[in-house]
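Retro notes (design track)

What went well: tokenization of the new backbones is finally stable.
What didn't: we kept losing track of which sequence belonged to which structure.
Fix going forward: every design gets posted as structure first, then sequence, in one message. First example under the new rule, 149 residues:
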């Protein structure tokens, strides 16, 4: 019984720690220049949610029915961006590697991540009902990591 109580206490403590590091904030509390820049770049954004994530402002939103997340430094510069893209939007180099190295697999989802000017593509591949792969590529199609899900 004491062991279960300790596990519950630990779980609540961990949850509390994560809550402290990323807190939803009112858009009116986001610096005006940052909010206006975001709105100018993404005028059709919907379901916009702002968070203060450590020393960064993070905005999560939908644009053309695809999910996006952008982290901004306190000075308003975007430092990291993640967003869903369609298989059709993958660079040709990546689609060629998928066709030759992952025969029979189909692209299920793609997340494009850009950090300080460097872009990667996290591609979830499915084959049938049970075979899933998670493969990360750089822009030129080089496989950076591969994991069986």
């Amino acid at each position: 019984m004491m062991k279960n109580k300790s596990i519950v206490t630990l779980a609540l403590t961990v949850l509390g720690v994560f809550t402290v590091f990323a807190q939803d904030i009112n858009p009116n509390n986001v610096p005006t220049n940052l909010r206006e820049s975001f709105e100018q770049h993404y005028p059709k954004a919907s379901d916009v949610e702002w968070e203060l994530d450590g020393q960064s402002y993070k905005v999560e939103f939908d644009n053309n029915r695809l999910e996006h997340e952008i982290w901004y430094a306190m000075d308003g510069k975007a430092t990291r961006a993640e967003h869903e893209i369609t298989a059709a939007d993958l660079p040709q180099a990546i689609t060629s590697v998928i066709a030759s190295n992952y025969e029979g697999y189909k692209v299920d989802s793609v997340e494009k991540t850009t950090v300080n000017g460097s872009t990667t593509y996290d591609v979830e591949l499915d084959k049938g009902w049970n075979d899933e792969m998670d493969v990360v590529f750089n822009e030129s199609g080089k496989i950076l990591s591969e994991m069986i899900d």
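Added context from the reviewer: Residues 23-74 form one domain.
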